[in-house]
Design a protein that fits this description.
Radius of gyration of chain B: 17 Å
Number of helices of chain B: 3
Number of strands of chain B: 0
Largest sheet of chain A: 2 strands, antiparallel
Largest sheet of chain B: none
Strand content of chain B: under 5%
Oligomer: heterodimer
Distance between the termini of chain B: 52 Å
Distance between the termini of chain A: 97 Å
Helix content of chain B: over 70%
Radius of gyration of chain A: 32 Å
Number of helices of chain A: 27
Order of helices and strands of chain B: HHH
Strand content of chain A: under 5%
Shape of chain A: globular
Shape of chain B: elongated
Structural class of chain B: mainly alpha
Chain lengths: ~650, ~100
């Protein structure tokens, strides 16, 4: 069959071109041109992806497509790594999300960042992020994926620390980077193990080798899967490496929406789905994925209950929702996890962008206790936010209802331990509904609790993006209606395996869905009781259980624990051993001895440099004379005359 | 025919006079002239050998030396004038700081 031309590498390279133009010349370009460049190149990527999706839809293209004859990257002995891109069902879904949501957030940023310093720098970073994220998604081998993986980490660091003059922002960027290093360490070990065991990095070849050995389970595969899981927990902010994500909210809000909600943090989920052939062979590793996911979902949701910073609530909510996706992966319901990834990208981007519109209108105020009554001032934001809140809480027929339900149903059907996971997920859904409605009431309902200095109208680009994302959040779940996630599940089945569709069907499905909707309603009602009109009841409740409340407010003291258990000892070792002993004593001492020798000999020899020309001339003449003597005098015969033989010690 | 040795002795004597003048004299101009004397002593031996071996290379070399000497004279004299302008002296011993 004649394959249409797809320009796969161009999908990733187009935003890189945008980065080069804006990064190198942006400072001198007029703002309109910066905007044009920043929007044009992600749009090109988006259009190419849409074109590919259209071809797949009409059947003109049969997936998967692995790029042939890609330029070689590393060729050492039997190891061959190239820059090949792979387009299959999984990467196509991910590409649509990344380029689509990414492009929308670019548009939004034009309005949001309009008056910020470093406008060009922001968009250069944003385009660079698109490049690395698309490399990550398109990569046909895990080493190239790792390049994208590290790249998005770098851009995350740059953008979290975008307001680098603010110390907290710079620190948050550093924290994100350092915590991610821990996960990347696991990823690297997994890479080495994969190379050792399989002799290749290419996904398809790894899967083929596993298929050829059906009996190969556990053992080193468990080790590989656990190392990959460590990498995923770093990037996707799961226990125990989630601590960087709440701090990452120091970045501009569009960044939080794009990188720390919709795309980058879901890379861990994507990676697990991409390497699921390995995970499938290790029940233990899968169990670990599920337990980490469920635990994180619950843990982060409880912290989210009491946060007062609007973006931090959303950050903990993101961690919690990512936990759901891990739970889905852990019960081998990969397509359900990816489905939740897609809907989450829509509604969480929408939530963050709404929060951004609120913050914009409140002149950079992020404390929800100072908001309230904004529904009158920001009608569009209010209605889109309402859609998002109802979506994330899991009300039908909105998107997350279907995706969250699919994950919970898959967990329920997953053996006896699955019931526990399902129950944790259900409780988390209750908490989610509660804290989202708490945010909704505190922000938009009641009376304004502080005077906004001046009302900023929300620019048009921002509003239009909000509306588009609200529509997507509303309808995005409909592609997954039906048994086995309907069309979506059937589409992904060739990549994620047929197991994903395990819907128990019939009454049980209805009961599970009913339970999910019921807990969402309970959460809403509780939030209504506590936060509608006044916060008195909430304050009373907090006063009734001061221990639990302060535990939550202090986020279980995890940061303090990490500080005392890891950061402090590292600092002590760095100061007393590395700095004082290694650096100052050993290296400094060696440098001092070397320098001292040079200085001392210099002090002796400097007397020669009298500055007197005639003394120089005399030395020159003496040297020339000595040279002449050495050449002209027949030294061997002179020595023989004196009775001395060179080399042999006398008679 | 004058023997080769005489030319060479003359050349050596001239060269030694140049070296002695270079070492002893205080006046920059004299020092400079001593350098020229050394160069010309070397030129003399070049020409001598060229004549002796009937090889034209030695004579060509002399032209090169003369050219370099001319260039050197131009630069050297310029430096000497500059020194005289700033210090009002041409005594070599007074010029012992590496600046004008």
């Amino acid at each position: 069959m004649n394959t249409p031309v797809l320009y796969l590498p161009l999908i990733a390279l187009a935003p890189f071109a945008g980065f080069l133009v804006n990064g190198l010349l942006g400072r001198r370009l007029p703002k309109a041109l910066v905007t044009f460049v920043a929007l044009l190149f992600p749009l090109i990527s988006f259009l190419i992806v849409l074109h590919a999706a259209w071809l797949v839809w009409t059947g003109a293209l049969v997936l998967p497509i692995a790029e042939q004859n890609a330029p070689a990257w590393i060729a050492v002995g039997a190891v061959h790594v190239d820059f090949g891109a792979v387009l299959d069902q999984l990467s196509l879904v991910m590409l649509l999300v990344v380029t689509g949501v990414g492009f929308l957030i670019h548009i939004y940023s034009v309005g949001y960042m309009a008056h910020e310093e470093g406008y060009w720098r922001f968009f250069a970073y944003l385009n660079l992020f698109m490049f690395f994220m698309l490399v990550l998604v398109l990569a046909g081998n895990i080493l190239l994926m790792f390049v994208g993986w590290e790249g998005v980490g770098l851009v995350s660091y740059l953008l979290v620390g975008f307001y680098y003059q603010r110390k907290s922002a710079a620190d948050a960027g550093k924290k994100a980077f350092v915590v991610n290093r821990v996960g990347d360490f696991g990823f690297l070990i997994a890479l080495f193990l994969l190379l050792q065991q399989f002799g290749t990095f290419t996904f398809s070849e790894i899967a083929a080798k596993l298929d050829a050995n059906p009996g190969w389970t556990g053992g080193v595969l468990t080790a590989i899967a656990l190392c990959l899981l460590l990498g995923a927990t770093g990037k996707s902010a799961q226990l125990p490496l989630y601590v960087w994500l709440p701090d990452a909210m120091e970045g501009p809000t569009p960044v939080s929406a794009l990188i720390h909600a919709a795309t980058m943090v879901t890379a861990g989920v994507y990676m697990i789905a991409r390497t699921h052939a390995v995970f499938d062979r290790s029940p233990f590793a899968l169990g670990a994925v599920a337990v980490i996911g469920a635990a994180t979902a619950f843990f982060a949701a409880t912290i989210g209950l009491v946060q007062t910073d609007i973006k931090r609530v959303l950050a903990y909510s993101t961690i919690s929702q990512l936990g759901y996706m891990f739970l889905g992966c852990g019960v081998a319901a990969y397509s359900a996890a990816i489905f939740h990834l897609v809907t989450h990208a829509f509604f969480k981007a929408l939530l963050f962008l709404c929060a951004g519109a609120v913050i914009h209108a409140m002149a950079d105020e992020q404390d929800m206790r100072k908001m309230g009554g904004l529904w009158k001032k920001l009608p569009v934001t209010f209605w889109t936010m309402t859609v998002a809140v109802f979506t994330i809480s899991g009300f039908p027929p909105l998107a997350a209802f279907f995706s969250k339900d699919a994950i919970l149903a898959a967990a329920f059907a997953h053996g006896s331990s699955g019931k526990i996971l399902w129950f944790v997920g259900l409780v988390t859904a209750l908490l989610t509904s509660f804290y989202m409605f708490r945010l909704w009431y505190l922000t938009f309902m009641g009376e304004p609790r502080s005077e906004t200095p001046h009302h900023h109208p929300t620019p048009m680009p921002m509003l239009s993006v909000l509306v588009i994302l609200a529509v997507l959040s509303f309808c995005g779940g409909w592609i997954g209606i039906g048994a086995g996630l309907g069309r979506f599940g059937a589409f992904l089945a060739p990549v994620t395996g047929a197991r994903t569709g395990e819907s128990s069907g019939g009454n049980l499905e209805w009961v599970l869905s009913g339970a999910a909707v019921l807990v969402a309603l309970i959460g809403w009602y509780t939030a209504h009781r506590l936060y509608f009109r006044s916060q008195e009841r909430a304050e009373k409740l907090a006063a009734a259980a001061p221990g639990a409340h302060s535990l939550l407010v202090h986020k279980y003291y995890v940061d303090e624990f990490y500080g005392a258990a890891i950061v402090k000892p590292l600092m002590v070792i760095s100061t007393y051993f590395l700095e004082w002993v290694v650096d100052k004593a050993i290296l400094g001492g060696a440098a001092w001895v070397l320098g001292g020798t040079a200085k001392f000999s210099g002090a002796l020899l400097q007397r020669w440099q009298s500055g007197n020309i005639r003394s120089y001339a005399a030395w020159l003449a003496a040297g020339a004379a000595a040279l002449l003597l050495f050449i002209l005098v027949p030294w061997s015969s002179v020595l023989a005359e004196l009775g001395i033989h060179a080399g042999v010690g006398g008679h | 025919m004058i023997p080769l040795a005489w030319y060479l002795i003359l050349s050596a004597v001239l060269f030694c006079m140049g070296v002695a003048g270079f070492l002893i004299k205080r006046n920059l101009i004299t020092v400079f002239m001593s350098i020229e004397l050394m160069l010309n002593a070397v030129n003399l031996s070049f020409v001598t050998f060229a004549h002796q071996w009937h090889a034209v290379k030695g004579q060509i070399f002399v032209f090169f030396v003369m050219m370099v000497a001319a260039a050197e004279a131009a630069v050297g004299l310029a430096i000497i004038i500059a020194i005289f302008r700033t210090r009002n002296t041409l005594a070599v011993d007074r010029v012992d700081l590496m600046k004008l």
